[in-house]
Amino acid sequence: MRRMVESMRNARRYFSGSGPARTLLRLIVVALFATTFGTLLAQDSPSQPAQRAFPDTEVLVSRVAEHQRDVEALFNQYTCTYKSTIYTLDKAGSVRSQHTDTYYMTPTPYEVFMLHISHDGKPSSQYDLQRQEKEIERKLRNYERKAEKNPNARPKNALLFADIILKSRFTPLRWDTVGGILTVVYSFAPKSQPARHGSSEEKVAGDLKGTMWVDPEDGGIVRMEFISVSPLSLGFLVNVKGFQGFVEQRKVNGEVWLPSRQDFVAQGRELIKGFRIHQVTEFSDYLKATTDVFQQVHSPNAVTGEGGKVQQ
């Protein structure tokens, strides 16, 4: 993934606010990013014949890791609409409540900014949009001042695929065609025991196992299904017992694989309260970023992503 409690209100605060669980969400989302592991994406066509030789695993995985570093740079060149529906679940897995929020997501060299534009279909007010813009501008100025002192600092909320790949062991399973693209399907698991110390990024990257569909032609990740290996502590107050899901990606402008859908379930405890959250996120309207970090909301055709216009 940087909120999870008994009610949807607190679930929204944790996953949309500034607490540690949002870090987990963004790592797996925006990053990454976050899905129900048991729900498999539909196969577009039958798997390819088993006798087809696999490419050298070590060579291809190295290419994929290198490619993901390039993706991180390209990711910062795009804005998109981010529509997230969060469900709170009871112990039996039934939905207790749900809310949908839509954002304009704008990566920058420093942070992925989320401009909230609607809640349950109701557009944000002009006053609220201006308040959010002022806060983002303030953060950008602070980041720019820090960058002058440390230009090599790693951006916040960077994509984690490259780190996951470097910390995982891969085994080829089969060939599969997804969306007309021939992919190699790999299982992956941590090379070593998950880290108990270090940053949230390091913990998450070394704590996943699952299945990954890879385009051998350009080293792009077409989709990934994952499940956590062990419980994850996100500070003194939040402990995630487990999370699982999938990320589905599509190629944008013929140059970079970016998320199109995520489906994510997490459960654990916050303080003394247990939580179980299911989040479904859709990414759409990818645009090349301009120098205006608010280019989407400033567009005369800006919409909420739910059929209503942003209040101008």
- Major beta sheet summary: 12 strands, antiparallel
- Shape verdict: globular
**What oligomeric assembly is this protein in?**
single chain
Structural class: alpha+beta
Q: Whole-number average pLDDT? A: 75
Give the key terms.
disordered N terminus; 7 helices; alpha+beta; 312 residues; disordered C terminus
Description:
With 312 residues, this protein is α+β, with helices and mostly antiparallel strands. It has one domain (8-298). The protein contains seven helices and twelve strands. The chain has helices at residues 8-16, 20-28, 57-75, 126-149, 161-166, 200-205, 295-298; strands at 78-89, 95-107, 112-119, 122-123, 168-178, 181-190, 208-215, 220-228, 232-233, 238-252, 256-270, 273-288. Strand 3 and strand 4 (122-123) form a beta hairpin. It is globular and about 60 Å long. The two termini are 32 Å apart.
Break the fold down into its secondary structure elements and pairings.
Blueprint (H helix, E strand, L loop, with lengths): L7 H9 L3 H9 L28 H19 L2 E12 L5 E13 L4 E8 L2 E2 L2 H24 L11 H6 L1 E11 L2 E10 L9 H6 L2 E8 L4 E9 L3 E2 L4 E15 L3 E15 L2 E16 L6 H4 L14
What's the quick description here?
The protein has about 300 residues and is of the alpha+beta class. It has helices at about 10-15, 20-30, 55-75, 125-150, 160-165, 200-205, 295-300; strands at about 80-90, 95-105, 110-120, 120-125, 170-180, 180-190, 210-215, 220-230, 230-235, 240-250, 255-270, 275-290.
